[in-house]
Write a structure and sequence with these properties.
The protein has a single domain (5-165), classed as Cyclic Phosphodiesterase, Chain: A (Alpha-Beta Complex). The chain is of the alpha+beta class and 167 residues long. The longest helix is centred in the middle third of the chain and has 14 residues, at 90-103. Helices cover 19% and strands 38% of the residues. The strands form 2 sheets. Strands 2-10-9-1-3-6 form a 6-stranded antiparallel sheet. Strands 7-5-4-8 form a 4-stranded antiparallel sheet. The protein has helices at 5-10, 49-60, 90-103, and strands at 13-20, 29-30, 36-45, 66-76, 82-88, 109-111, 125-127, 139-142, 144-151, 158-165.
Length: 167
């Protein structure tokens, strides 16, 4: 069967699910430096985008909002050279992460990066960025999740493809 035009279109993008500290609407574009808490790292869809968008809204619109707390600073990455702050409560973020993983294979997705840090390797965090200061103990309301997409041909622009608002 020949791919539909939207199936072909998904092959141009990679996606990730995250809580974005800036409240951006669907369609907004931003640079990679935007502060966020990743729920599911970069992945590619090998099927039409619509079934995933339907699943995304159906499941994530049903989540209860919660408050998160900025935790201790740490160094992440293979070389331990990426400054981050852990974010808690870890259990709530792990539940979001597991929910996102639950559909992954069913909808024809695959990882778009070599070491995706999922499952037991997932640790909710915010990467520190020059000019943005997060203070340990600071709280933030987690009241939405966004699905972002970016060109597989990296142009350093991300777009909010969908946004689920928590109850």
């Amino acid at each position: 069967m020949a791919p539909t035009s939207s199936e072909s279109k998904t092959k141009l993008y990679r996606y990730y699910i995250s809580y974005l500290l800036d409240d951006l609407p669907v369609g907004a574009k931003f640079k990679p430096s935007a502060l966020h808490v990743t729920i599911l790292p970069w992945f590619a869809l090998e099927t039409d985008e619509k079934p995933f968008l339907d699943w995304f809204y159906k499941h994530f619109d049903q989540i209860e909002a919660f408050d998160a707390t900025v935790g201790e600073p740490m160094m992440f990455g293979p070389k331990k050279d990426v400054p981050v702050n852990l974010i808690g409560p870890k259990e709530e973020f792990l539940q979001l992460h597991q929910l996102a993983l639950s559909w992954f294979g069913e909808l024809g997705a695959r990882w778009a990066e070599r070491d995706p840090y999922v499952g037991d390797d997932y640790k909710p965090h915010v990467a520190q960025r020059r000019g943005f200061v997060l203070t340990e103990g600071e709280t933030m309301p987690i009241n939405s999740l966004s699905l972002f997409k970016a060109s597989r041909r990296e142009d350093h622009i991300r777009e909010v493809a969908a946004k689920a608002k928590f109850k």
